[in-house]
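Researcher: First entry.
Model:
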Amino acid sequence: MRKIKFGGKFFKSLNFRILLSLALTGMVPVLIITGVFLASYEKQALTQLGNDVRNQCQILATQLGSGELADEAGSETLQGELAQLSSLYDGRILIIDRNFEIVEDTYQLEEGRTMVAEEVIRCFKGENISHYVSGRFIEMTVPITVETDGGRKIVGVILASASTDSIHSQLEGLRSSSDMWLVAVGICVLALSILLSGWLIRPLKHMNQSIGGLVEGSLDGDLDIHDCTETENISDTFNLMLAKLRLVEESRQEFVSNVSHELKTPLTSMKVLADSLLMQQDAPVELYQEFMQDIAEEIDRENTIISDLLTLVKMDRKAPELNIAVTDVNEFMELILKRLRPIAEKANVEVVFESNRSVSAEIDATRLSLAFSNLVENAIKYNRENGWVRVMLDADHKFFYVKVSDSGIGIPQESLDYIFERFYRVDKSHSREIGGTGLGLAITRSAVVAHRGAIKVQSEPDVGTTFTVRIPLKYIA
């Protein structure tokens, strides 16, 4: 089992991404909740402190409004209350008369001086001034009112401040405790994230090990991972792909075997013929001519096999390069049949072409020429003496159809599923007799598929065969 290295690959791995996602999912809400709690506590504590100070100042303002401000401010009782209040909240209290003169200062620093501040002026105007934070202090103004004939009149202002150091000290303590709590939660979340990410990634590790075993060995065996629904689906899909790979491998091995056999057969024949001539030093000229004729035929056969193989290789490309052009399909088919009629006349087979309409289509004439030539040539070669081959052309709004029928020997039902495979022959002895390579129908199907078309076959032994080809009128890239 391969160990995970904490390098660039680990940080790009799914394991790390799941780990990071789980850790963030666990820690981000905790951080948000902690921050909201601390901010809420600070706000609530400051509000409570401000309310307490205001209530005390309002009691003090009521007491001062019951008599003359100067007399009340100078009383020892009031000074004691001011000192007590100032000490309680670790702050400062100023009493200002209507002339903006400070008549009482708990710090005893500015008595007799004038205090002209915005909040004092606004308080004298009757505006409701709530407390506000200035640095590490809460400051507020409370009006001192007296009852007159015209109503209540503001005769002075209490300017009070209270220290928030105690609140900040409590906040620092809470922050220290929350930091320790966050560290503990972070460790727990990280440990849980590591466990969960490992558990979530375990099916993929099992799958990787199983695939690695298949890669190192053969294509035998299937992938069987059922840890969860997703891995089960991947296993099923992989097994389908593996089955197709096995078919491809079997086809490849069979193809290589067939190619080797087909290429060696003409060479073996030529070798036997040449050795026979070499062993007969006084062989007559007629025998030399006969053997050389046989050697020439085997060379032609070898050349045909190689040409067909090269054609298949070109057609097997994933993206075949087609030379698409608008083509008159009627003239195209006439030209193909014109080239093949001499072969038909030699075999005493009648070739008939029927067209129901004029057809033009976007095709690669060279590729499709190979396909239709193979179909018609096979219909001629595997026909009977005095037989016939009928080629019919038709079209609709989307496709054109070419049907090649013959009165030949037909194809057995059990062979119809294999006739488009490379080197497959229904009757090997008869195929060799007429020079077939077993590649013609494979080339035909490749050309038709490259045009996004389809081909199907119907046949009955000793009655005949019909191939039907369907090609789009407009090429679909």
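Researcher: Second entry.
Model:
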Amino acid sequence: MTKIYIDGSAGTTGLRIRERLAARRDIEILTLPDALRKDEEARRARMNESDITFFCLPDAAALEAEALVTEPHVRIIDTSTAHRTKPGWHYGFAELSRGHREGLLRAKRVSVPGCHASGFLALVYPLAAGGILPADYPLVCYSVTGYSGGGKKMIAAYQDPEREEELGSPRQYGVTQQHKHLKEMQAVPGLLREPIFAPVVADYYSGMVVSVPLYRHLLNGKQTPESLREYFRNYYEGQPLMYVADEVPSFIGANTLAGKDTMEILVSGSDERILLAARFDNLGKGASGAAIQCMNLMLGVPETTGLEM
């Protein structure tokens, strides 16, 4: 029986991880009374009693929590931004490469990708790895997500019956180009510059579409929408949570995969411009589902165990 502790189990991601693990017979979830949920010594004891501890915390708290783990057998899965580009931490996106997958099998410290970053990397990393996308390509990324990605405070604001009228429309943010996912978006695929990133939050609970437009003449080789679609299909062959759409609809709904832990890759475009898109749930493959997939691989069980296909 694997002992699991979730530090930050009252947050959106922590709650979802706990709900998904509750029915697992191979998992024992270690808990604390509400009165001790923020008690440092109580948390320390639970972490060091566990086999795997999830950090579902703000960045600063996740950095502090790392110091509480002193027992060498304890493995950590961090869902915050704090450790995604930090040396000694493994980036938990198994589908990106053989190294990413095999590294999870033995990793002691794993950082779960950000939701926007997951879609961006699913599109960009394979092209960079295959030499199709130059490292100095001037990338632009557009991403629309449901409001659950903003956490409890944003969820409450959107669900407030007396909310501001503006919340009924899509809202662009990250306008200073300082979004916290940008570091991993550049570092993981080895880009020479951060992309221009335009995230948008909209009035629906969960699900997202991340898009990357490309000019054909700036890519290496004679690429077409059809050739890239086939490239992605071969790249992600055998990956149970990833699939490539045969056709792209006229409208790509961002909440289509809400409640699922899969990711869909869509490739469309014209003779001059190609549009790549990744569609998934920001709470699934973009957060708790990805964290559980990492845990499954670390434990040596089928990676889809407990996930929604």
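Model: Note on the second entry: Residues 284-299 form the longest helix (16 residues).
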